[in-house]
Amino acid sequence: MTVVAVHRPNVYASRLGRGALGFVVLLAAVVAGTCIGETPIPLTTVAQVLANKLLGAGYPLDPIDTGIIWNYRLPRAIVAACCGTGLAISGVVLQSLLRNALADPYLLGISAGASTGAVTVTIAGLGAGAVSMSLGAFIGALLAFLLVAGLAKAAGGGVSLQGTGQIVLAGIAGSQLFNALTSFIITKSANAEQARGIMFWLLGNLSGARWPDVWLAVPIALLGLLATIWYARALDAFAFGADQAAALGIPVRTTQVVLIGVTALVTAVMVSIVGSIGFVGLVIPHAARFLVGVRHGRLGPATAIIGAVFLIAADVLSRTIIPGQVLPIGVITALVGAPIFALILLRGRRTR
Amino acid sequence: MILRTKDLGWSVRGKAIVSGVDLAINEGETLGLIGPNGSGKSTLLKLLGGIRQPTRGAVSLQGRDIASMPRRKVAQIIAFLEQQAETTEAITVRDAVELGRTPWLGPLQPWSPEDDRIVADALRDTDMTGFEKRQWATLSGGERQRAHLARSLAQRPEILLLDEPTNHLDIQHQLSILQLVSSLPVTAVIALHDLNQALSCDRVGVMAGGRLVALGKPEDVLSVERVTAVFGVRASIITDPADGTRLFRFHSPS
After folding, report:
1. Residue A20, exposed/middle/buried by CB under 10 A (0-12, 13-18, 19+)?
2. Signal peptide: which range, if any (chain A) (predicted)?
């Protein structure tokens, strides 16, 4: 008899090593996102600005450069990283919990619901200033998910393997409904100036990202990441369905409520900052599975890093691909995402 | 009494799937559950494992109400293997069997060499050694069934609840799996379709229309008259000249 005992001498050290590697990659991406732009800024200048601001180094620098780097590009890159992480992690969690390879906050209508919530608060003025845009987006996201999940369940789908089609169909219906509501509110209540701004924001736009957005996005992205790490084994246990997860000792209902709540919160906050960006939550988890496998202990962190790097890259592309013009970032992610989505569909057909 | 139910019932949309089941399972015994399709065997197993919450009565595990116990604690005692648990994830056999360690591992607790040993034992006991790296999607029905059983064994349970574990298995593996289950120092409740396999259990419970209509030693419970009444077929009992074992033979009713 051969015992397949893989020797794992120091698990904590290797975990720490992988974590550090991920952090370095992330840092490099943020710095690259800060350097690259319509006017490229040398790495040394970026480093000097960071040294001035963080350590008070006092390098003599052009105040315009400092302003561009510190007030625009750096917060923008950090917010992009957080949104990439948040949306990608939401995708991983939804795909596992719903046992559906096509689940993601955008397809399931959660992003659309968040948009409606955000627009209701900002344009229609619901809540009379007491409700923040993020809270409005959160309520919208949660309502949208409940509606979509309820519709899928009523259509006989739910989370069973046979019913995987229903939740996607319900998601499409939900997206359409909430997008229509958003358009309705904009048309009815917004003036022309507001309408143009909102439409641009809805397609995904990072140009408004400033430090206050960073202070909102970073903790929420971290919350999402920590939740996926904490629930990694529980998410693994859903591989054979909710009943088997329960049989493996997972408190199914609590886990679903907590994780879907976190997903809705993360999506809502990201949508309230940058608008609704599609395909990140769908495509990045599949890319990460391809690289590190299906176990969530690795998949969660890998998805987080890849999502962050992907969205920074997409943002850089959206700023530089047409000189003198900024594309909505959702256009870039969809241009990359749609073909990959098609690939997933084709692969899914073959394995069935 | 390791597992006991009192007036246990479960209904969905007003229709009783299981009702009035009083069952006391002794430590270490192998209890076979038989009954026609839709007689409530699978639901009873889910209730026994605490996967479903009863709409009437209660299940007590080692003297405690199972509904009040943390799921994780229950899963350290009971392994439940359902029919047709499938996945579309690209997991390997080893990934699937390692899931059996879930109830014993905290969220951040690392995998240990002891876990490796338990998984290797479970693979060996189910004759799945060498399949570790195989993708789930490439397995045959019987291999999946054995991998599921290996996962249940990796849970190191005191009680095994198995829903038709011999489905899809070839005759050699049917016999070796049942042999394995009865040789393990565990309490086992097994839903079975093959009445001849049920004959080798310590006790047999007969389900019909959601009720437990008979319970006792196989030779007392599995009479020709009862088989005819419950399954609607004619049966005769013959004796194997090789070892004197009783065997059922069935005829369609006419």
Report:
1. exposed
2. none
